[in-house]
Each structure stands twice: as C-alpha cells, then as structure tokens.
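Predict the structure of Small integral membrane protein 8.
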Amino acid sequence: MGGKASTAKGPETTAGDGIRSLQTTGVFKAVNFELYVKPNLAIMAFGVVAILCSTGYLAYMKAQHRESKTYIAIAEDGSQHLTHKRSKWD
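Done. Here is the predicted structure for Small integral membrane protein 8.
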C-alpha cells in the first residue's frame, strides 16, 4: 500500500534538550520550573554568593556569641536573665 506513515508534528528537538523535549502538562512545567529553564551563569553566581554570604554571617554570629561569654539563665519563676559565664574557681 503506497501510503506514507504519518508523523506527529511537535517541537523540533536537538541534542542536549533532555526533559525539555518531552510532552508534559503546563502544571508539571510550572511545578518543576528549574527543569525547563536553561542555565544562567549570572543568576547562578548570584545564588552562590548569596549562600556564601549567609553562611559567613551565621558563622560570624556564632563566633560573636561564643566570645561574649554570656548565656540566658532561667529563674525558678520562668523569667530569663542574661548572665555572664563564671568558672568554678571564681
């Protein structure tokens, strides 16, 4: 029989498209947005710098807390007091 086989017309795919070449729903694409966006070097660099700055700030705050030699003491009535740490020798 001389008929041609019908092919589904869809978006042209190229090597490296990965999951972007699959047929999915709009909801799936909205929920998994990062799978369909091409990598952006500027946004990635900003994210890395933001995470490093946040981690550095948390480390700095922890170091400041340790150097302050204070702690929060809870009294019998439930009130909290900021107290200096004392050694047993004082």
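Residues 41-68 form the longest helix (28 residues).
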